[in-house]
Inverse folding.
């Protein structure tokens, strides 16, 4: 067996070449909207890298050693604080911070992604969500005198060529590739639960008042993380958003914007503008990640 | 069926605050240049924030907990024109190699241990190849000893060529992990020379294996780590002046890793400092 074979994971699907760090085009934007006074949405967009810390050396120019390696993973997170209370904004912030801490230090399983140890990674992601749930609960006990904050959480982790999504609540993650848009996450609302059980017709769900009642939330009475794995392709776009976008902008419109994408920033700004133009009744957050397919267009 | 009682205090990974590692080098009193090189590095995970609604200030960017420690001593082979280049290049190549492999291999999965050893050897092999290439271009050999210890709790791996040394101290006992790859050692092993006569023999300083030379016989050792274990890596500039008993005394004392390095280098200098002296000492708090 050749040495290289020992360390390479056999490709799961033909994804195309892994984008280098410099090819990534990541952007995120949040806006309070036109009605709410406060913005209780939070988002995070980061990459995780191996890093060497040199404690001592005789080498004359240690600063010239490459101390940070190519990314192991890209992290996309949207959290939408539930309800109008102060507690909602606090909950989405605490959950985002808890996840940040988790992925930057505790989560040890990037190497297990896409291998036979996939299950270990999926478990780790579920426990990350439950860890955030505990953090929000503990924070509420400490600071909110009995008030309970809750938040949605849509967490996307890209370990090329796989996208793992952890879903709690009704923020969304979309996957766009080869002209097709697909909603990766399932809205964890009472309305969607009824649709899934065949009790409510799908077309009635979005108009139902139950479409805004979460059946699962971080910090809420029930937090039931759902983990999805998607095989991703070179040239794809990943979009995560809060419902402040999707209550005003349809899937067809999101798709049209991604088809015409010039940069992640341009798409984020255009979609937020569109939601604002239609009333901006809630906080709006849009996060877009992709790899440039050619030289940067702008 | 046998059962093993595990002493959890002995197997718990030391906290970052409990690990104390230090490295130091000195030209000595005789040589004009220092051809020794060393490196002490730890592997972490860093988070690069691209955009967030959170203020960046209170977000952790570097994991405090390290995935492993790398300690390296390279002693450029004396007398040769490019001695210093050899040890510097080897250190540089190995450091770069390890950056690439950190996440793949620095994990506590016993099933992947052979991989880790293979990679460690491959890193040293790459440095060897780089030195041979350099020698061809520069028109002269650039050779060096190499002693690398990689600690990935609960194991330590040591790769070695030449006559720098790695010592391991446990329960007050000092054990030389590496075998000197010198002509004198070969003759001792074959019974052709006694250990006593080897001490004063000129063959003591003739290497039979080195990185970047035509002869490379890389040796690998692995150890199970325990809380309280200490390590010492050094070039022969230390051990030609300081005995194993003295090393044990200093390494097992209550001094910090920095104090241990300083005291041992001072001792070598007091006794003539005939060669470049390099010392790396590690201590982890006992459980």
């Amino acid at each position: 067996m050749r040495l290289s074979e020992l360390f390479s994971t056999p490709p799961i699907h033909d994804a195309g070449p892994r984008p280098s760090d410099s090819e990534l085009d990541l952007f995120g934007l949040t806006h309070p909207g036109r009605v709410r006074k406060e913005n209780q949405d939070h988002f995070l967009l980061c990459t995780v890298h191996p890093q060497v810390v040199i404690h001592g050396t005789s080498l004359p120019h240690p600063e010239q050693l490459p101390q940070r390696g190519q990314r192991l993973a890209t992290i996309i997170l949207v959290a939408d604080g539930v309800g109008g209370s102060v507690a909602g904004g606090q909950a989405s912030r605490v959950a985002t911070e808890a996840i940040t801490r988790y992925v930057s230090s505790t989560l040890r399983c990037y190497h297990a992604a896409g291998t036979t140890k996939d299950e270990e990674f999926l478990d780790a992601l579920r426990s990350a969500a439950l860890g955030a749930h505990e953090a929000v609960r503990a924070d509420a006990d400490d600071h909110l005198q009995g008030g309970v904050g809750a938040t949605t959480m849509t967490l996307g982790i890209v370990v090329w060529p796989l996208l793992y999504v952890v879903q709690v609540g009704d923020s969304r993650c979309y996957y766009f590739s080869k002209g097709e848009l697909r909603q990766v996450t399932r809205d964890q609302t009472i309305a969607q639960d009824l649709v899934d059980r065949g009790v409510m017709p799908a077309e009635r769900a979005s108009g139902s008042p139950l479409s805004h009642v979460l059946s699962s939330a971080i910090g809420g009475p029930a937090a039931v993380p759902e983990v999805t794995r998607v095989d991703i392709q070179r040239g794809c776009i990943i979009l995560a958003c809060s419902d402040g976008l999707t209550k005003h902008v349809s899937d067809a419109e999101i798709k049209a914007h991604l088809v015409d994408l010039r940069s992640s920033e341009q798409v984020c700004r255009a979609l937020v503008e569109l939601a604002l133009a239609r009333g901006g009744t809630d906080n709006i957050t849009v996060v877009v990640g992709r790899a440039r397919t050619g030289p940067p267009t702008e | 069926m046998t059962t093993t009682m595990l002493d959890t205090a002995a197997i718990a990974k030391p906290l970052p605050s409990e690990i104390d590692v230090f490295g130091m080098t000195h030209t000595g009193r005789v040589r004009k240049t220092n051809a020794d090189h060393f490196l002490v590095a730890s592997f972490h995970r860093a988070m690069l924030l691209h955009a967030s609604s959170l203020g960046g200030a209170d977000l952790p960017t570097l994991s405090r907990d390290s995935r492993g420690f790398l300690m390296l001593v390279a002693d450029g082979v004396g007398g040769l024109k490019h001695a210093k280049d050899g040890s510097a290049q080897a250190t540089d190549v190995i450091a770069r190699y390890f950056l690439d492999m950190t996440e793949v291999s620095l994990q506590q999965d016993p099933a992947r241990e052979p991989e880790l050893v293979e990679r460690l050897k491959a890193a040293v092999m790459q440095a060897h190849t780089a030195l041979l290439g350099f020698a061809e271009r520069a028109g002269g050999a650039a050779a060096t000893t190499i002693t690398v210890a990689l600690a990935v709790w609960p194991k330590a791996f040591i790769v070695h060529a030449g006559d720098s040394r790695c010592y391991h101290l446990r329960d007050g006992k000092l054990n030389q992990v590496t075998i000197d790859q010198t002509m004198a050692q070969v003759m001792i092993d074959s019974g052709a020379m006694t250990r006593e006569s080897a001490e004063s023999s000129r063959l003591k300083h003739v290497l039979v294996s080195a990185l970047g030379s035509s002869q490379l016989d890389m040796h690998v050792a692995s150890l199970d780590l325990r809380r309280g274990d200490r390590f010492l890596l050094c070039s022969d500039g230390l051990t030609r002046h300081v005995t194993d008993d003295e090393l044990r005394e200093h390494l097992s004392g209550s001094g910090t890793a920095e104090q241990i390095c300083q005291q041992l280098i001072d001792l070598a200098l007091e006794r003539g400092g005939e060669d470049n002296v390099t010392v790396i000492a590690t201590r982890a708090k006992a459980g």
Chain B has one domain: 20-42+67-284. The longest strand of chain B covers residues 36-52. Chain B is about 30% helix and 25% strand. The CA atoms of residues 104 and 139 of chain B lie 37 Å apart.
